[in-house]
Design brief:
Length: about 375
Amino acid sequence: MTYKFRIGLRPQWTLGGEDGSAAVPLQDMLALLAAIDATGNIAGACRACGLSYRHAWGVLRRFEDIFGTQLLITARRQGTQLAPFAQRLLWANRRIEARLMPTLESMASELQEELERLLPESGPHLRLHASHGFAVESLMQHMSGRKPGLELRYRTAIEALASLERHECDLAGFQVPQGEFEAPIMARYAQWLHADDCLLIHLAVRNAGLFVTAGNPKGIRGMADLARPDVRFVNRQIGSSTRHLVELMLQRAGVTTGQVQGYDTNEFTHMAIAAHIASGMADTGMGVETAACRFGLDFIPLVRERYFFAIRKSALETAAMQGLLSIMRSPDYIGYVGQLAGYDARDTGRLQTLQEAFPSGPGAGI
């Protein structure tokens, strides 16, 4: 049985007048601005958005009247560019989407599973708690409309592992940097990972490092540069593994958190970090290479991370878990993950014990 519907939630801007007039949605205008930015001309943007030339100009003129400023700059032989105000609108929308989409996807997944349980022939489903990542996002897409159902909640690694121990989820996602920072990161997870009860499913290896604007105008090379007064940093949220990794790397570089301008400025996803920097609100931040690539940022690699799903051994032979493993090991899914910038999918879907994954590290003694 395949499901005939898929629930999606999206953020939407509306613009209301001070006189209490009805709110006007901005989505068509924002989509049109994004297409003009990508194609460099209105005709191409109309084709991309499926709009007539006349209708597109009507949308643009309407919002120029509302805002009281121009949205486009048209130069002869140079095509059409977004005016500074339109560029700010577009970047604000990208930041909002990057910040809210994980929450909305989690809520949509929850609602999807609630409704599917009420349908005839509703089968078993799995509950995944994990931080937002591109391989996780892709897995949800590959599972869409297929059994077993997969219900997603975005959580920090520690929140996810604690949920697994309380039997509130079936899979808990967590990442571990390779090299010198593996031991202190694993020490954070130790109380929730038990060798006699847990197995690990290898998801991917990925590059993590600093994002900087294209061309790296500030000449940022590593964590020591975060102490410079001309460098603005954007951090991940309190409790996230990436934030803890930043703390460890700063310590190694001899930099205190008080020296870092913007250390207490937080975003919740790699994409939100990238959008924050791409919109000019910060000079650098820590995340995975894929996000930097998608926002046209330069990337300074600092560490390789392994990403795992922890499961209970008792769940391994269930039909739902075997179905999930089959999808994770499929050429389609492995091929998709492998083409993500900075991702290595050679071991995707591989089962390991804690001792196998961490033969000489803290995992061997957990």
